[in-house]
C-alpha cells in the first residue's frame, strides 16, 4: 500500500516532487487526476502524486479537485499527505493555496500545518517569511509580471492571510537553526493550534530539520524541497523507470512565460529549428495555425533529423503581463493540439515547458500514469507514459515537464542526452 499521498497543483510541480521522492527512496508514480490502480513499473508504489491543473482554476473547483484527490489517495491506502504548490508560491489574486490547505485540513481533522515553499537547490529561500528567488525578493523577481500568477508581494504571511480562515504565523529561522525539537515545540505550543505556520528555511539542512519536526503531521504543505527530509523504504534502491518509447523524433513545446524559459528559448533558437506561436494567427484560425505548426515540425524531422524542433509562445519580446485575457487559453489549446497531432505523426519524446502548458498537453494526450525516469536538472525528470489517441491508438511517449524557472540555459538542446 502506498504510504504517502501528494496533491500537486500543477503538472510540472507533480514531476518535480516525484523526482525528489524517488531520490529519497520512495517508489513513486504520478497520476493524472485521482489514482486508480497505480503501480510503479509493476511494483506497489510507496508514494502517489496526483497531478492537478488547479493552480489557476476558480477556488471552488481547485478545492473540489483537491478533495477528490485526497479521498482517492486515502482509498488507495495513503496515510500521510503532502500538498505541493509552487516554490514561488504562485497563486492568483483570489488564491487557491489557502482554501485548498483549509479544506484538506478540515477533511483530515487536523488542526493546522506548515507552509514551506523553500527549495534552495533552485534558489528559493524563505527568511522572516519573505520569499527570495536567488538574490531577489519574489516581488522583485520576474514572477512580478507573470501572465496568470503575478506575484506582487514577497511576504508569505501577507499573501496567505487573505486566502485562509486560519491564523497565519511565523516559525523563524532562529528556531529552525535550534533544531527539530525546537521547531516541534514551536508548532505544538497552544498559540500554534489551528494555524498555518510559515517556516523559514534557507538551506537543505533547514528543510531536513523541518521535515523531522513535522513527521507526525497528517498533512504538510510546500514545494518539493521539503521532501528532501523524507526517507522512503527503499533509500538508495528505489529504481527509475526506463523509456518505453525508445529513440524517435522529439519536439519542444514551450508555453511558459517565465524568465528562465525565455532564456532557454533564446539559446535554443540559434541551434534548433523553431517557430513562434503568433496570437493573431491563433485567434484568426486556430485549426489552420495548428496545421501550419505541425507541418513545420514534421518537415524539420524530415530535413533535419536529430535536432528536435521548438514551438514557443514567449521569448521576452512580448509584454505578457498586459496580454489579452484569451491569450493563455489560446496558447495552451494550440500547444495541446500540436502535441496530439505530433504524437499521432510519430513523436516519441516531448519536452514541455510550463506547468499550465504541461497540464493542457498531458491531459490532451490522455495519459494516465507517469513513471519517473532519469533526472535532467533539479526538479525536472524524464517521465514515461502512454498517450491514448483517437480511435483507441495507444503510443508510448517520453515526457519532460519543465517548470518555468527550472533548468540551465542549454536545457532544450541537452535534455535529450539523459534518455540515451
Ligand atoms: N506571449 C504570451 N502572452 C500571453 N500569455 C502567454 C504568452 N506566452 C505564454 N502565455 C501563457 O502563460 C501561461 C504560462 O504558464 P505556465 O505554462 O504555467 O508556464 P510558466 O509558469 O513557466 O510561465 C500559459 O497559460 C501560457 O499559455
Ligand atoms: O515548485 C516549483 O517551482 C515547480 O515545481 C512549479 O510548480 C513551477 O511551476 P511552473 O513555473 O508553472 O512550471
Automatic annotation (TrEMBL):
Statement: the UniProt record of this protein carries the keyword Repeat: no
Enzyme Commission code(s) on record: 2.7.1.217
Catalytic reactions on record: 3-dehydro-L-erythronate + ATP = 3-dehydro-4-O-phospho-L-erythronate + ADP + H(+); 3-dehydro-D-erythronate + ATP = 3-dehydro-4-O-phospho-D-erythronate + ADP + H(+)
Chain ranges of the Four-carbon acid sugar kinase nucleotide binding domain: 251-412
Name of the top EC class for this enzyme: transferase
Pfam families: NBD_C, SBD_N
Domain Four-carbon acid sugar kinase N-terminal: 4-229
InterPro entries: 4-carb_acid_sugar_kinase_N (IPR010737), 4-carb_acid_sugar_kinase_N_sf (IPR037051), NBD_C (IPR031475), NBD_C_sf (IPR042213), OtnK (IPR050007)
SUPFAM superfamilies to which the protein is assigned, alphabetical: YgbK-like
Keyword Nucleotide-binding: yes
GO molecular function terms noted in the UniProt entry: ATP binding; kinase activity
Function: Catalyzes the ATP-dependent phosphorylation of 3-oxo-tetronate to 3-oxo-tetronate 4-phosphate.
Family label: Belongs to the four-carbon acid sugar kinase family.
Name of the protein: 3-oxo-tetronate kinase
Source organism phylogeny: Bacteria, Bacillati, Actinomycetota, Actinomycetes, Kitasatosporales
Amino acid at each position: 500500500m502506498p504510504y504517502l499521498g501528494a496533491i500537486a497543483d500543477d503538472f510540472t510541480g507533480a514531476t518535480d516532487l516525484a523526482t525528489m521522492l524517488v531520490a529519497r527512496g520512495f517508489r513513486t508514480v504520478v497520476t493524472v487526476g485521482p489514482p486508480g490502480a497505480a503501480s510503479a513499473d509493476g511494483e506497489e508504489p510507496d508514494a502517489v502524486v496526483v497531478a492537478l491543473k488547479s493552480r489557476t482554476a476558480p477556488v471552488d473547483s481547485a478545492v473540489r479537485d483537491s478533495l477528490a484527490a485526497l479521498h482517492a489517495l486515502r482509498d488507495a491506502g495513503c496515510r500521510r499527505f503532502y500538498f505541493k504548490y509552487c516554490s514561488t508560491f504562485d497563486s492568483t489574486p483570489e488564491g487557491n493555496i489557502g482554501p485548498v490547505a483549509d479544506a484538506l485540513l478540515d477533511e483530515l481533522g487536523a488542526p493546522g500545518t506548515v507552509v514551506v515553499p523553500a527549495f534552495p537547490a533552485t534558489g528559493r529561500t524563505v527568511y522572516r517569511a519573505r520569499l527570495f528567488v536567488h538574490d531577489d525578493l519574489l516581488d522583485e523577481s520576474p514572477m512580478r509580471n507573470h501572465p496568470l500568477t503575478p506575484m506582487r508581494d514577497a511576504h508569505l504571511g501577507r499573501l496567505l492571510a487573505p486566502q485562509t480562515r486560519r491564523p497565519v504565523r511565523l516559525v523563524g529561522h532562529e528556531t529552525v537553526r535550534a533544531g527539530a525539537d525546537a521547531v516541534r515545540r514551536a508548532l505544538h505550543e497552544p498559540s500554534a493550534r489551528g494555524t498555518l505556520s510559515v517556516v523559514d528555511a534557507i538551506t537543505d539542512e533547514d528543510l531536513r530539520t523541518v521535515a523531522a519536526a513535522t513527521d507526525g503531521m497528517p498533512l504538510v504543505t510546500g514545494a518539493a524541497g521539503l521532501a528532501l527530509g523524507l526517507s522512503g523504504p527503499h533509500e538508495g534502491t528505489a529504481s527509475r523507470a526506463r523509456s518505453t518509447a525508445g529513440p524517435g523524433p522529439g519536439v519542444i513545446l514551450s508555453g511558459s512565460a517565465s524568465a528562465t524559459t525565455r532564456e532557454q528559448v533564446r539559446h535554443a533558437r540559434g541551434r534548433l529549428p523553431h517557430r513562434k506561436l503568433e496570437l493573431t494567427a491563433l485567434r484568426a484560425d486556430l485549426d489552420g495555425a495548428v496545421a501550419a505548426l505541425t507541418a513545420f515540425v514534421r518537415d524539420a524531422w524530415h530535413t533535419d533529423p536529430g535536432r528536435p524542433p521548438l514551438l514557443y509562445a514567449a521569448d521576452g519580446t512580448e509584454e505578457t503581463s498586459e496580454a489579452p485575457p484569451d491569450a493563455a487559453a489560446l496558447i495552451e489549446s494550440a500547444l495541446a493540439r500540436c502535441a496530439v497531432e505530433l504524437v499521432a505523426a510519430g513523436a516519441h519524446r516531448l519536452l514541455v515547458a510550463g506547468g499550465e502548458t504541461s497540464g493542457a498537453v498531458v491531459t490532451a494526450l490522455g495519459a494516465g500514469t507517469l513513471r519517473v525516469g532519469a533526472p535532467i536538472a533539479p526538479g525536472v525528470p524524464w517521465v514515461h507514459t502512454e498517450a491514448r489517441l483517437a480511435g483507441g491508438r495507444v503510443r508510448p511517449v517520453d515526457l519532460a515537464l519543465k517548470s518555468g524557472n527550472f533548468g540551465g540555459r542549454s536545457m532544450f538542446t541537452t535534455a535529450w542526452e539523459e534518455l540515451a
